[in-house]
Amino acid sequence: MFYTIKQLEEKNVANEINCMVWSNRMDLVAFSNNISGELALHRLTWTRAWSLNPPKDNTTVSGIAWRPDGKVLAVAYNPGDVVLIDVETKYTITSFDISQDISFISWIQEKAPIKQKDVLKANDEESTNPPDLSKPYLRHPPIFSLIEGPHIEEVRILSNFLQDQTEFNILIVGTKEGLLYLIVFGSWTCVVIDVNKYIGEKCEIQNAHFTEDLSKIIVTVTRENQETNIVIFNSEIFKTHTKELYNVTAKYMKLHELLLYLEKVLVTITETWENILLEIDNKLSKYARKMPEQGVTAEFLELLMFGVCSEEMEEFLLHDLTKKGLEKFGQSMEISYSNIQSYLFRHIIKFAPNITYHLTDLKGMAQFKDRYGGLGLNTEVIQEAIRANAAFLIKAAEMQQIINHSVINYKAFFRWLYSSIMHLVDEPIPSDIQKMTQQDLACITEFLQNFDGYGGTEKKDSKFVMERIGQYIVDAPLTIKPDMSGNDWTEFLQENECLADNPHIFQHYTDKSLVQVLNQLKDSIDTIFKRPLNLIESQISHIHNLNCKNVLQGGAIKMSSINISSDVQVFCFLKPKKNICLLQMHIDKNGKCQARAGKFSFIKESQDSFNVVDIQFYSSSVLSILLEESCSPNHGVMLQFSLPCALDELLELDVANVLNFDHCPVINGFDFTTKITKNVDMSVSKFAVSGSRRVGMVLAENKKKIKLYEMECEEEDEEDTDMTNILKDMSMQESLTE
Fold first, then answer.
1. Helices 242-290 and 323-343: angle between axes, nearest 10 degrees
2. Do 24 and 692 form a contact (C-beta atoms < 8 A)?
3. What is the pLDDT of residues 388-432, one digit of tens each?
4. Sheet of 60-66: strands edge to edge?
5. In Å, what is the CA distance from 705 to each residue of 289, 401, 687, 698?
6. H or E segment at 538?
7. Which residues contact 13 (CB under 8 A, 6 or more apart)?
8. How many angstroms separate the CA atoms of 270 and 340, rounded?
9. Residues 318 and 424 sit within 8 Å (Cβ to Cβ)
């Protein structure tokens, strides 16, 4: 049975398209807008699934890569942002900033699947790593019971991100500055390779290709003089330490998920606090600006002790604060503090210990020097992160105690203030308001001590704050430190200074806010996973450097690469505009490299020549080529080029010398009998194909018109379609004649 290419759709789009990539698992194509940076996802019928605006203004998409399972899109924005998007929900899973212009992005996976159940299998005789025992003992954060909103959806998607991946994969990002980022599971940047130092000058990453078993990386770069180099690295660590990388990345994701969860809880606490306290806080701030320094405290103390107040105070109480406003605030204040306490107990104090569990598990991995020593895990650095998490829990408990104390002070203060307002308006005090006791008086006096701002800062530069909870949820030192006098443990440490720096005694940072301690915890965990960068890079050794002459002729390289066996790779370079160059490479286990190359043009028997517009490997046996007639630029042709036939024509090259493709004889690609072509009746600029989905998409020269194709349509179906159209035309002509 012979196959042909069948056109499915022809559509015009409003804006220019600059990137387009098919999914290898679903009939979906992702493409980006060249002007606004918008990303869109369309189905094969060209119905839009969703669209997404760029994360920042004035950014454009420089590359798109599908995760091999088709569930996640990696989008590279210039200058330097990489965003991972959940295909089903359109939510951003995570993002990171490389701070350099991105020139290449790809997502690859090992050919042999590495199942999660095999990685964590308890009775695996070859593995000395214990199974993940956290599920029976650790409760996951109740994501849906916190509050509804985008914050929780981010955590939910992140928690499922690694669980959905059952095969070892690496996100590859190359920059115009010659840096290659290898990101395991699209999560943990385990190594950054500086290719410049192997070239001896500045270069730009054009392509990065792994062998099937991930033991070799073949990086194509262009130098400043526009010459092309192929740099080969030994990346055996990705082959030999797949399970270890999986386990470390799993811990990285668990910790990252918990940190994100704690951040979102703090955001929720901040919003709860601000919504309730903002109104009265603003009123008090407005009144405080009218008063001299220490005037607010003096006015309230005079009212408390003598029962009299100034005209300004009376106006503030009766017209600004008002009796109804105070009643409303008194009711909502207790609810607000109760909610904040609930968030602390149910979400921070309850689930922050999970971080200690995973850090301890990671510390246990680091003890296996033969397996995890090469990944750079350090027990001392991990122990420091454990101490940072303990400090965070201590600070959360401190905030809980402050809330308990503040609630008592608040109730006493507002009962007294409400009674004072009732006296000013000559109304009877309700019977449900208790008479003031000596304890209430002490609470009110303590509450009023800090009414003129924090830490002696100038009022014109500081926000007036009347309570102590807000200072814990901002990224700044505490202005009212907790009173630790009378605390037995604090006094014990002060008497025994030798224990203060003991790594097994957790520190209590009395001068730091909860947000500051959380940031310190985040930095400690980041240090754990940043330390392996240099160590892993040192284990990726340089094998060979091939200098390819006369490949680039101005601008970026158009190229495509594919593995045709475990140790054979094929690269195709586009030499504008007449030729393509095929390079077949064989790298054995010892790193010895052999190369064969050939150059192909496309000329019909009528001597009509074709320009090559774009290239992409369709499968391991077919190279898709987009052509246009030299004499008729408005006529394009898609060609399915037989790769085995072309490889038979390649000549062996000496890798020790410069690889000059101009020395290869030019072969006419139309001389091969095994080929499939399809006329595209428009001027063309680029295309995208998917061999696994058997689909293709051609973009017009104006980049505002596309044509969709089924790449492997049975010829009989095509003939039936043509015959049906002919019969329809004949019937229409007969009806017109009658």
1. 160
2. yes
3. 999 999 999 999 888 887 778 777 877 787 788 888 877 787 766
4. 60-66, 72-78, 81-86, 92-97
5. 63, 65, 12, 8
6. helix 532-538
7. 704, 705, 706
8. 9
9. yes
Return the ∠ at Cα 432 (arms to 429 and 434), rounded to 5°: 80
Q: Are 714 and 732 in contact (CB under 8 A)?
A: no
Question: For 539-576, what is each residue's pLDDT tens digit?
Answer: 999 999 998 877 765 556 889 999 998 889 999 998 77
Q: How far apart are CA 689 and CA 565, in angstroms?
A: 21
Could you state, in order of their start, the residue ranges of all structural domains in the chain? 1-13+558-738, 244-535
User: For the chain, what's the residue count?
Assistant: 738
Q: pTM here?
A: 0.82
* Residues contacting residue 516 through CB under 8 Å, at least 6 positions apart: 475, 476, 477, 509
Closest to 77 in 3D by CA, of 95, 58, 97, 61: 61
Dihedral (C-alpha) 107, 112, 114, 118: value to the nearest 10 degrees?
180
* Among the listed residues 615, 598, 611, the one whose alpha carbon sits nearest the alpha carbon of residue 561: 615
Contact 174, 208 (CB under 8 A): yes
Determine contact, residues 465/457, Cβ cutoff 8 Å: no
What the block records as the tokens of 425 is 């308006």
Whole-angstrom distance, CA of residue 599 vs CA of residue 332: 78
Going by C-alpha positions, the residue among 1, 105, 3, 71 that lies closest to residue 619 is 3
- Alpha-carbon distance of 138 to 386, in angstroms, equals 17
Burial 377-396 (b: 16+ CB within 10 A, else e): bbeebbbbbbbbbbbbbbbb
